[in-house]
Design goal:
With about 100 residues, the chain is mainly alpha-helical. It has 4 helices and no strands.
Length: about 100
């Protein structure tokens, strides 16, 4: 990975990542009609995405989140964004060889 600083990730790309995170959080939220509850569930996901080292790392985190969201579809909402991050991070670690 490059040595690009996290704040140098394109703002549009970061906004797109946050949109993906809101989608995942919405599926985690039992009262998804309430945007405040969706945002609360998205906060840990936003933090995990913000830790991306560069755009390539952000792309891998997004892929891991997409995979975990698909895996969670059959489970129903659990209102736990932090648990989602733990599950997605395991997939991310497997992708990057850290697992």
């Amino acid at each position: 990975m490059s040595s690009t600083r996290p704040d140098s990730i394109d703002p549009i790309e970061r906004a797109d990542a946050h949109a993906d995170a809101l989608g995942w959080a919405s599926r985690l939220t039992s009262e998804r009609h309430n945007p405040l509850l969706v945002i609360i569930n998205a906060e840990p996901i936003f933090q995990w995405l913000a830790a991306a080292l560069d755009e390539q790392d952000l792309a891998l985190r997004l892929r891991a989140g997409d995979l975990q969201s698909a895996n969670d579809d059959e489970c129903g909402p659990d209102d736990d964004g932090a648990a989602f991050v733990l599950r997605a991070a395991l997939l991310y670690d497997a992708m990057t060889g850290a697992a």
